[in-house]
Structure formats: C-alpha cells, structure tokens
Design a protein that fits this description.
Layout lengths: L4 E3 L5 E2 L6 E3 L15 E4 L13 H13 L3 E5 L9 E5 L7 E8 L4 E7 L2 E7 L4 H16 L4 H8 L10 E5 L2 E6 L4 H14 L4 E9 L1 H6 L1 H8 L4 E8 L9 H8 L6 H7 L5 E6 L4 H14 L3
Parallel strand pairs: 1-3, 4-5, 5-6, 6-7, 11-14, 12-13, 12-14
Antiparallel strand pairs: 1-2, 7-8, 8-9, 10-11
Helix pairs in contact: 4-6
Length: 301
C-alpha cells in the first residue's frame, strides 16, 4: 500500500528509490532478532517451530526480544506484550487504537467499519478471512502512523493482487477448488471458517499436507480436532523441509486416522457435485492442485 522497497520471506524482493523498506521477518532460529526496525508489526504469537523453540515461553520470549529492538510496536490487541510506544489493532475489541468491525463478508471481499480516533469509515477489503483482515488493519495502522492519509492508502488497495497460494479459489466445470498456504492448526481453523461462510451449502473436502514432522506430531491433537470439522479428509505426504524422513511419521497417521491421499479416490469424489475441494499446506501440494485443476479442465467430469 506504500511505494516502498520490500523483501519477502521466500526471497523475492522489490527495490525502489524511496525511504520506506518493508521486510517479512521470520522467528525461526531467532533470525528476526538481527533487525532493528522503526516499526515492528506482530500479528500473532501462535506457538510454532517446535523443533527450535522447545517451550511456548521460549517462543514468546523471542517476540518480546524482537519488540525491544523496535522503536514502535504495532500489535494485535489481545496479545499481552508491553512496549513504550505500542499501538494496537483488533477485529473484536472496540477499545483498540484501530478497530475494524466486519459488517459483511462473502467469497470475494469483506466490508469493514473502521474506527480510528475520531474517524469512522466503511471500507471494502479484498480479503475474506480473519487473518487477512487483521493483516490489513495492521498495515493501515502502520500507514497512518507514517502520516499517510487513509484515502491514499485505500486508493492503492484497489489495485492489490492477492499473494500466491492464499485463498486461490477456482471455479471449473461446476466444481470449486481452493488452494491455501494454511499449515498451522489456527490457520486451518481460519480456512474452515472462510470456506464455511463462503460455501455454506456445500460439503468440505480437504487434502492436507503436513509441514515438518516435528510440527505435525507436536500439534497432532489440534490437527485432528480441526480437520474433523471438514466433511472429508485426505492426508497428503508430510513435507519435511529441513528435516530428515523417519519412521515417526507413522505415529502421525495412526493418531489422525484419516485416509492417505490418492488421486484416483479424489477423481471418484468429483462425481459428487456437493463438494468444495480444498488443498492446504505450505510445501509442494500446490503442484498437485495444479495437476488436478488441469485434469478437470481436460476430462469429462
């Protein structure tokens, strides 16, 4: 929303001749502690990267230390983290500095009533999930603190393009396919809420790819409970990323008790028109999504 240079976590970047530089920091191995930003935005502190952070307290402490490196902290209102120059945003607490109330949401956009100081304004958000709209509030608050006018920022938002693998919804031959990067239990919950709100009359079939064995085993109960909300579940092979494969993967499948993914079984499900098909994960499941998408385009299903 600003004409700024940026560096994204996957290594992609954009450089321009301006004063603002925006980067996506990662907490894994405390890499974000190497930075000393003017503004730090913390969207959530959902415990993760359990192969490095051995306790929730250790994980939270990393974010506390990161906030100490920042001149200004922008944070979701429910997170209890102190800072001398703290600014909060929220979709649920009217007492937050920037409060957004979602008054309408559908498959394509949300309408949000913003409250900031003495200003109340309704805006159209191109985002459709709680996490995305919280990201939007954080970005808007950062722009306001930098002295930008809200109208200028909202004007730029009209040309915003959704990131890859984030709520990629495709309608093809009377079927609905969704690809999303969700790989943490809280993200899967948000994904389910979006799908349920957008397609309430359809059953939800999810193909889920676990990301790292350590995360999959540590949160196995949360994954099982969250995936059980969907009407049908297939488990795609775990993406190991930095880890080595080991036999402990069997514990994951035995505990969750959902069937493993086979494309031939999914093809049988295509004959049922009451499903929305969801591919979720942060590894390589996007390649399978594209293969299935092309199959539907070219097949008589």
């Amino acid at each position: 929303m600003l004409a700024s240079s940026c560096l994204v976590g996957d290594g992609s970047a954009k450089y321009q001749n301006n004063l603002e530089f925006v980067y996506e920091g990662c907490e894994y191995q405390n890499t974000f502690l190497s930075y000393y930003p003017n503004i730090l935005i913390i969207l959530n502190i959902d415990y993760d990267h359990v192969d490095f952070f051995k306790t929730r307290e250790q994980y939270f402490e990393a974010f506390r230390n990161a906030s100490k490196n920042a001149s200004t902290l922008i944070i979701e209102d429910s997170i209890r983290l102190d800072h001398p120059n703290k600014h909060s945003f929220s979709l649920s607490n009217e007492e937050a500095e920037l409060y957004g109330k979602i008054i309408l949401e559908n498959e394509e956009y949300s309408l949000i009533r913003l409250k900031y100081k003495d200003m109340i304004k309704e805006i159209k958000s191109p985002f459709v999930t709680k996490y995305e709209n919280e990201n939007l509030l954080a970005a808007l608050l950062a722009c306001l603190l930098l002295g930008r006018s809200l109208d200028e920022v909202l004007g730029r938002l009209k040309s915003f393009k959704r990131p890859k693998r984030r709520m990629d919804v495709r309608h093809v031959k009377n079927k609905i396919l969704v690809l999303d990067y969700a790989h943490h239990p809280s993200q899967l919950n948000a994904l389910y809420e979006y799908i349920n709100n957008s397609f309430p009359s359809l059953k939800k079939l999810i193909i889920y790819e676990g990301h790292t064995l350590s995360r999959s085993l540590y949160f196995k109960r949360e994954y099982k409970d969250t995936l059980a909300k969907f009407d049908k579940v297939y488990l795609y092979p775990i993406y190991y990323a930095r880890e080595e494969k080991c036999k402990s993967e069997r514990k994951y499948y035995r505990y969750l008790k959902f069937p493993k993914y086979k494309r031939k079984n999914l093809i049988k499900d295509f004959k049922k028109n009451n499903f929305v098909f969801i591919f979720a994960g942060a590894g390589e499941i996007n390649f399978e999504f594209e293969k299935v998408y092309r199959f539907i385009l070219n097949a008589k299903v």
